[in-house]
Amino acid sequence: MNPNSSSPTADQNPDDADATASAPSGDDRYRAPALDKGLDILELLARQPQGLTRAEIVKKMDRNASEIYRMLERLVARQYVMRSLPGDRYSLSLKLFTLAHMHPPLNRLVSQAMPIMEAFAQKAEQACHMGVYDQGNVLIAAQVNGPGTWSMTMRVGVHVGLLDTASGRVLLAFADASQARQMLAQRMALEDEAPVDSDELAATLDAIRKQGYFERDSLQSFGVADISCPIFGADHSALAVLTCPYVRRMDRHTGPDQKNVRTLLLQAAQAMSLTQGGFAPASRTA
């Protein structure tokens, strides 16, 4: 046997053998077959909102069952793919979504939102904050104080509950059905989070979709009315949420009332949105 033969030995990775089977050229010069398989699985699952079984993945990819199984297990372990509770179906998690909305894109979103938020705060004489979904809860990404002496503010960088806040409910209401299920699956209750009834939550989310915003007395603070409006992304789901914790003045100062503040907030959220008007509620029910 030729000692310079390139045939794979028992110590070689089969994927490496694939890479050396033919002379590389052009884009194939730096092939990484194992990485390609993983990316192929992610791209396949991205087109399957209901997920696929392992057998279906093997058939669609025309690959060896054992290599697909190994790759799926690694993707599940790294939380890029979720296995259904019965364990027979695989679907994308929100990890890619979260990575895509980390610092640089989030910084761009905040920088574009800040002038609009500041204009709202001046007109409404109220504070406002912007929240985005982050690993099961809501991350406060931006905050603007009201111009007066009194306002209700949130600290940038803190996480608030997905289910017991107006911000979280708006993000859930304007997520597509598959996205909403994954958000709920990843949710972890925060300390002091208010209890939520599942039937009440479902009814509230349906009402938010029909109304286009959410307005209610805060579950965290007395005397505060939370008003939350979706900021729509290119796919018509909620990219972020703009919230005003409305505080009514009791002294002689007369500022915009709650109805006017809601109108100003809706206008601000629409100005930040990549699409206008959101989506038909029927297309997003879970």
Strand line-up of the largest beta sheet: 5-4-3-8-7-6
Q: In terms of per-residue confidence, which ranges show pLDDT below 50 for 5 or more consecutive residues?
A: 1-26, 277-286
Strand content: 15-25%
CATH superfamily (homologous) name of the largest domain: GAF domain
* CATH architecture annotation name of the largest domain: 2-Layer Sandwich
Structure commentary:
- By secondary structure, the chain is an alpha+beta fold.
- It has two domains: 14-93, Arc Repressor Mutant, subunit A (Orthogonal Bundle), CATH 1.10.10; 98-283, GAF domain (Beta-Lactamase, 2-Layer Sandwich).
- The protein has ten helices and eight strands.
- The strands form two sheets. The protein has a six-stranded antiparallel β-sheet with strand order 5-4-3-8-7-6, with helices on both faces.
- Helix 3 (54-61) crosses helix 4 and helix 7 (166-173) packs across helix 9 (198-211).
- The longest helix is centred in the middle third of the chain and has 22 residues, at 103-124.
- Mean pLDDT is 83; it is low at 1-26 and 277-286.
Task: Jot down its keywords.
disordered N terminus; disordered C terminus; alpha+beta; Arc Repressor Mutant, subunit A; 286 residues; 16% strand; elongated; two-stranded antiparallel sheet
What's this, in brief?
The protein is of the alpha+beta class and 286 residues long. It is 41% helix and 16% strand.
Could you give the topology of this structure?
Blueprint: H1 14-19, H2 33-46, H3 54-61, H4 65-77, E1 81-83, E2 90-92, H5 95-100, H6 103-124, E3 128-134, E4 137-144, E5 159-160, H7 166-173, H8 177-186, H9 198-211, E6 214-217, E7 224-232, E8 238-247, H10 258-272
Antiparallel strand pairs: 1-2, 3-4, 3-8, 4-5, 6-7, 7-8
Helix pairs in contact: 2-4, 3-4, 6-10, 7-9
